[in-house]
Design a protein that fits this description.
By secondary structure, the chain is of the alpha+beta class. The protein has nine helices and twelve strands. The protein is globular, with a radius of gyration of 21 Å.
Length: 310
């Protein structure tokens, strides 16, 4: 019988969540600390739905574990993305397994449902935990940094221009459509509605650049700008206009205007299977910093593995 209980996330858990992240990141820097404001913004992101599918583990009124979770639809297939954060003093005591069982209980058995999560490539305990439960490594997210932008001379087709949009939320419909078309085949894809994209583009620090042909938007670059970091969140080009140099022109124009230097570098994540994008970023001056592996398992296989692991 465990000496802790699992319950739903509550708004008054914020300070305890910040403390949990601080303790976990002191043991594993890849987890990273989080502020109360960042946590609140994260929970309110459209796909997290206010944290309705988040679960916490509590012992003697102390929060010792967290499961972040959101369900996404990928062209008729359901994927539950999750992340476990466990107090270092309570690892290997069944807290992570108990939280994962709670996430499994959120959905009826479905052969089209799978679970996905990320784990740093050097986190041996975490990788062993996932592989023991049948998770398979399907791709990696490669984190890259740029301290100095390499000079480029992009050549655009006639009548095609790159420009910054001063009120990004006004283009939520166009950006959502481009996102959904450009990333539809990605293993981590989730569709965005116009309302969800509008909410994201209205957030503080969001910067949007587009490449357009007259009035038609062919692609966009979305960045999140902080005092010490320019985070290139997404570049998406209309599938019918790819391989024309639009992505390079868009990225270079946006990053050059941002003013990258050693005090304010640029960062991004790119899929290990997207060789063209990684090559483009290297040409711009980005270098690999770390690898985070993406793991996946079907719901039914996970249920079977957890039954054996009891």
């Amino acid at each position: 019988m465990p000496d802790f209980l699992i319950r739903s996330l509550r708004p008054d858990d914020t300070d305890a969540i910040v403390g949990l992240y601080e303790a976990a990141s002191a043991r594993d820097i890849n987890i990273g600390p989080i502020t109360a404001a960042q946590w609140t913004d994260f929970v309110q992101r459209p796909h997290n739905k206010g944290g309705q599918d988040f679960r916490v583990a509590v012992q003697d009124n102390q929060l010792i574990g967290l499961a972040e979770s959101s369900l996404r639809d990928q062209d008729g297939r359901q994927v539950r993305f999750f992340k476990l954060v466990i107090d270092p003093s309570r690892r290997r005591q069944g807290v992570g397994t108990a939280l994962l069982k709670e996430l499994l209980a959120l959905n009826a058995r479905d052969s089209a449902l799978s679970f996905q999560t990320l784990a740093a490539s050097d986190w041996r305990d975490g990788l062993a935990f996932l592989e023991r439960l049948g998770f398979l490594h399907i791709e990696s997210e490669i984190t890259m940094r740029c301290l100095s932008l390499s000079a480029q001379t992009p050549v655009l087709p006639d009548a095609v221009v790159v420009e910054r949009i001063e009120a990004p939320w006004h283009l939520a419909a166009e950006v959502a459509d481009l996102h959904n078309a450009a990333f539809a085949l990605d293993v981590a894809f989730r569709s965005y509605s116009v309302g969800e994209m509008q909410q994201i583009l209205a957030e503080e620090g969001q910067v949007l650049w587009v490449v357009r042909d007259h009035s038609r938007i062919l692609g966009y670059c979305r960045m999140e700008c902080e005092p010490g970091l320019i985070w290139l969140e997404q570049i998406a080009i209309d599938p019918g206009h790819q391989s024309r140099g639009l992505g390079m022109a868009l990225a270079y124009g946006a990053l050059q205007a941002a003013g990258i230097d050693h005090g304010r570098p640029a960062g991004l994540n790119v899929s290990s299977v997207n060789g063209k994008a990684r090559s483009m970023y290297r040409k711009l001056g980005f270098a690999i910093r770390r690898e985070v592996r993406r793991y996946s398992v079907s719901q039914l296989d996970l249920i079977g593995r957890m039954a054996i692991a009891r």
